Amino acid sequence: MLFIKFTFLAAVVAGLPSSTNLAARQGCTSPRLRKSWSQATVEERLAYLEAAVCITKKPSRLGMHPNATLHDDFAYTHAMLDFDIHQFAGFLPWHRYFVMVYEKALQDCGYKGTAMYWDWVADSSDPANAAVWDPVTGFGGNGQGTENTGNFAGPIQDGPFKDFRPLYSGTALEQHGLCRAWSRGNPANDDKDLFGHRYTPQIVAEVLATDSSYDAFREALEGGPHQAVHFGIAIGNGRGRIGDMVPSSSPNDPIFFLHHTQVDRLWWIWQQADESRTNAYDGFHRLPPNAPEGEQGPPVTLNDVLAMRDLAPDAKVLDVMDTRNANLCYEYPL
């Protein structure tokens, strides 16, 4: 097991940031373009889906449970680090790196492309009919019925992941069919399906106009559109049963990675608006819930570690601030 883990880590280091300061190296000469799912060809979508299904069948790297898959590893790692990667400055760089690790896993399954994003801003007027939910060239649709497993809502009924059974709920073993519980909103309040009214072009433009600080932008994005998409896919009508996109193990749902590639794209667009934002990073670390009231955590730095708990080598924040550095080497359409 140790030899296998060492061999894997050595291979990944060649294609992903390590703990060294990669941002100081020369940038890439031909950055790869990450596409919107709706703009990708049918062939590109099917190739991505084939590789994503492959990840759900590959053996675990972490070895936490004999039935765990590589896809379960992503959900478990995210859940284990839940407190350390949300609601503070590190949210954006950590998830940027996490998506990159997933992209590499797709490529290890034979995929030749890059991570793709769901442009939920463009689909906000009717997100329930977005191309990402197509049963053949997408991720399948909403969950239906109920399942007597913990607090989960109904499992999905179609698409390439309808037979996939994630192993975890948070960090607890709770195998279940992949669940979604789309919010239908409240027509009396003019709500749209999947909370689309919370990530309209106007709202996202206001988030992108945040110029007071990096952390102010991060807070507006994380607590606004980002959170609304998670809730829209997974909280249903608020009856206490939820889909996989809400727990800390939200990477259970493969749509998580298209969602967070879009989050990364919006950060990238914000960075492009001003060259000084490439390495803009400020804020404070979260303190544990039992910390004295009013106490503030230490300030964040570009040398803070982005932990991956053996899913991949750890990186530093500075390693992922510029997507055009030698090891990330990608960009988005503006």
UniProtKB/TrEMBL annotation:
Protein name (database record): Tyrosinase copper-binding domain-containing protein
Stretches assigned to the Tyrosinase copper-binding domain: 86-103, 253-264
Keywords: Copper, Metal-binding, Signal
InterPro entries, sorted: Di-copper_centre_dom_sf (IPR008922), Tyrosinase/Hemocyanin (IPR050316), Tyrosinase_Cu-bd (IPR002227)
Keyword Metal-binding set for record: yes
Signal peptide (from-to): 1-15
PROSITE patterns linked to this entry: TYROSINASE_1, TYROSINASE_2
Transmembrane regions listed in the UniProt entry: none
GO MF: metal ion binding; oxidoreductase activity
